[in-house]
Amino acid sequence: MITVTDLTKRFGPTLAVDRLSFAVERGEIVGFLGPNGAGKTTTIRVLAGYHPATSGRATVAGFDVARHSLQVRQQLGYLPENVPIYPELRVVEYLRYRAALKGVPAKERKAAVARAMAKAGVEDVRRKLVGNVSRGYRQRVGLADALVANPPVLILDEPTSGLDPNQRRRIKDVVRELAAEHTVLFSSHILAEVQDVASRILIIHRGRLRADGPPDELVGHSVGRRLVVSAFCEAPRLCELVAALPGVNAAEFAAGPERSVVVTAELAEGSDPRAALGQQLAGAAIPVRELRIDVPSLEEYFHLMTEGADRAAEVGEGAA
Q: By the 8 A CB rule, do 102 and 149 touch?
């Protein structure tokens, strides 16, 4: 439903998006992550037709963003971070006005507005002035606006920004429900929310794609994982066995409970030496208390893919 190929966007000398490529399939909820200035909002604005791309190609529902802008907008519901709404209109009046602007036929407008209000959960404030509802409800009115023409694709830019925990929970529930009928691309700085809602995440940094995949798979096979083994033997012997394993980058030991020794080792991306180590320990008749792999949280993984990757590159350049 969304395809981005070698997308580049410059603002004068500033390179905001650098040959970015990704695809979002029908029915997916994809979290779009990156630190401030990574190029998320710029990419979203290119997809929404707000900014033209400098080079590359983007399509939404099969329509080219540059050549078929009107058709793209008909297929797309967009919720910006700061919702531009008319405070002097009632919620239902505002949504009827927006439905008219989006070309919803007059005879279908009432039903379209009712459907959008139900999906966004704003029926109980339908007669209130938009300017008099809470920030959480304003976000949901903006979401109803994005839904009123029933587009197949939704792009949500920081939909829970500034909301309290209860409001964020409601928005998360709404996004989950939308996946039954819509393809959703949304950005957020709250990584726990993304992990709760998204079936897949994209991480960009400095305008480039750094990671793409289901959250659990990304952290489960990433750098930053650590092998932890607790056994009853001499520390040098356990360290020697662990250090000899393929995919182990560094190992250190400490005293463990019940006079055991605990060895912790950094693992290379994708490696899992537990089976091999278990066989070696069994063959050496070494009693094992615990053998596990600790994976980073999504927040730690995000750091590794952004600031951590930058620091590793700086260290490499310094060594060269």
A: yes
> pLDDT digit string (tens) for 145-202?
999 999 999 999 888 877 778 878 888 888 888 888 889 998 888 888 888 889 899 9
Q: Which amino acid is at 283?
A: G
| Structure confidence by residue, pLDDT tens digits, 82-126 | 888 889 999 999 999 999 999 999 999 999 999 999 988 899 999
Structure-token match 């393809």, residue found:
183
- pLDDT for the residue numbered 110: 94
- Which residues in 29-188 belong to E strands, given as ranges? 29-33, 55-60, 63-64, 76-79, 153-157, 183-187
Q: Which two tokens stand for residue 7?
A: 């997308």
Domains and CATH numbers, the chain: 2-219 (3.40.50.300), 226-294 (3.30.70.100)
Whole-model pTM: value is: 0.80
Per-residue tokens: 79: 């919720």
Kindly list the distances between the CA atom of residue 223 and the CA atoms of 15, 67, 301, in Å, as whole numbers in the listed order. 28, 41, 8
Q: CA 169, 174, 179: angle at the middle one, nearest 5?
A: 130
**Cβ-contact 113, 95 below 8 angstroms:** yes
In sign, the C-alpha dihedral spanning 92, 95, 100, 104 is negative
Please report, as a single letter, which amino acid is at residue 315. Answer: V
Instruction: Match 């606006």 to its residue by tokens.
Output: 145
pLDDT score for 308: 57
* Residue 207, token pair as written in the block: 């305008």
Q: What average pLDDT score do residues 227-253 get?
A: 87
Classify burial at 253, counting beta carbons within 10 Å of its beta carbon; exposed 0-12, middle 13-18, buried 19 or more.
middle
Among the listed residues 296, 130, 108, the one whose alpha carbon sits nearest the alpha carbon of residue 217:
296
* Rounded-to-integer distance, Cα 151 and Cα 146, Å: 8
